[in-house]
Amino acid sequence: MRVVLVLLLLSFASPGHAQLRPAPQATATPRQIREGLKTATQPEDQKALHDQVLRLFGLKNLTQGRAGAKIEATTVAWAVLDPKPARVLSQDGALIGDMTALGEDGLQVLVADMPNFTDTAYRIESEGMPRLAGTVHIEHYDYTADSLPQPGVPQGRLEKFEWATSQIFPGTVRDVTVYLPAGLQPGEETCLMVWQDGSRHVDPHGSMRVSTVFDNLIHKKDMPRTVGVFIDPGRKPQQKPGDKAANRGFEYDSLGDAYARFLLQEILPEVEKRHQVKFRPQPEAWAIAGGSSGGICSFTVAWERPDRFRKVLSWVGSFVDLKGGHVYPSLIRLTERKPLRLYLLDGENDLDNKFGNWPLANKQMAAALKYMGYDFRIDWTQCFHGSKGMAPHLPDALRWLWRDVK
Predict the structure, then answer these.
(1) How many domains are contained in the chain?
(2) Interaxial angle between packed helices 30-39 and 43-57, expressed in degrees from 0 to 180 and rounded to the nearest 10
(3) Residue 3 lies inside a defined structural domain of this protein
(4) Interior angle at CA 272, CA 291 and CA 308, nearest 5
(5) In sequence order, what E strands does 73-224 have?
(6) Alpha-carbon distances of 264 from 268, 272, 286, 304, 393, rounded to whole Å
(7) Spatial separation of the C-alpha atoms in residues 154 and 214, rounded to whole Å
(8) How do strand 189-196 and strand 286-291 relate by DSSP bridges?
């Protein structure tokens, strides 16, 4: 009996036993680290702060000199392991700040607020010797309530399927996520909105949070009941989900009607069949959206098939010479006006490279649309290339696009 008792005690004392396993400690944010630097006056508080910094940056990263800056909104934290006093400087040698030592092992940290919409190259020095270098990219926006879950608002349903039998883009595999508004009945007619690079935009925890915005605006009747079809670009069969899709540039940046046919002949009929939905027949009830190359892709679909798609949402659109898209401003001016409504967004910090200047290209698009009398709007921001700049504008953009459809 004594042996059995000992074995039972040993089993419960085992480190792997769930009941005795310590709860994981939450990682502190840069702003919490900054507050800790102000308030940690007692040894036990300083030890706790030391451990929080280690968890935030990772001991292995610090030991190997790979601990990059950590960013929270416009607050940046740097850390280094060095027995000698260290400091952080910008590329031009201006002092960002002296680092504060934590404990006896050489751990040092600096937390500073940086200007929004900036790229700052930095280096960490110890007695004039560089220890670490990198770039801090600051781009922060606050969401409105329409991008956040609201009490009492019914949530739509997300369904996902894989499409690997394309005849128009053979040899590709892609994920398709379908947003079905709350309470949708089989066979009910709804509006349609197609999104390129779909998975990351529909994610309720991503930067765009389209599914949450749809929930809120549909509930408030600020946009009609809409099925969202969120399509990822085609990857090759040997690629894993989440890999950079090998076929993205070809599908999105190419001119012509291939992608429109892909939607109309393959994806949308499959969505209707799988989910027993019926898209309203009026082209004013069909919209398409995307950013960067997904933006020019969305425009191309509507340009080629205005009989089906009448609404376009494009942010940081790649209307440059990746695959000939730089011709669109001239084509718009030389072609009879099409019955399209277009929302554009770009910013002064967008790309400028060998393929063209994205801000200039979007300004040229806006000028051509204005010249031809299109129903269009451009919101000009300080955004960089990506979706962060579009995210806070999305609710207002959707209201503007759907204002004529109930």
Answers:
(1) 2
(2) 160
(3) no
(4) 55
(5) 75-81, 86-90, 95-98, 100-101, 107-113, 118-126, 129-138, 157-163, 174-180, 189-196
(6) 6, 11, 12, 12, 29
(7) 10
(8) parallel
Q: Residue 375: its pLDDT value, please?
A: 98
- Please report the pLDDT score of residue 103 as a whole number: 87
Do 127 and 206 lie in one domain? The reply is no
Burial (CB < 10 A; 0-12, 13-18, 19+), residue 343, is: buried
Closest CA to 37 of 98, 86, 84, 94: 98
Query: For the stretch 70-98, what's the b/e string if a residue is b when 16 or more beta carbons lie within 10 angstroms of its beta carbon?
Result: bbbbbbbbbbbbbeeebbbbeeeeeebee
Of 138, 162, 191, the one marking the end of a domain is 138
| CA 179 from centroid of its chain's CA atoms | 18
17 in any annotated domain:
no
Q: Which domain holds residue 90?
A: 25-138
- CA-nearest of 265, 263, 321, 270 to 290 is 263
Residues 314 and 203 in one domain: yes
Are residues 276 and 269 in contact, defined by beta-carbon separation less than 8 angstroms?
A: no
Give the chain's residues under pLDDT 50: 1-23
Secondary structure E strands in 31-82? 70-72, 75-81
Domain shared by 161 and 134, yes or no: no
Give SS3 for 330.
helix
Spatial distance between the Cα atoms of 28 and 194, rounded to a whole number of angstroms:
38
* CATH number reported for the structural domain that contains residue 201 in this entry: 3.40.50.1820
Three-class SS of residue 382?
coil
pLDDT of residue 310: 98
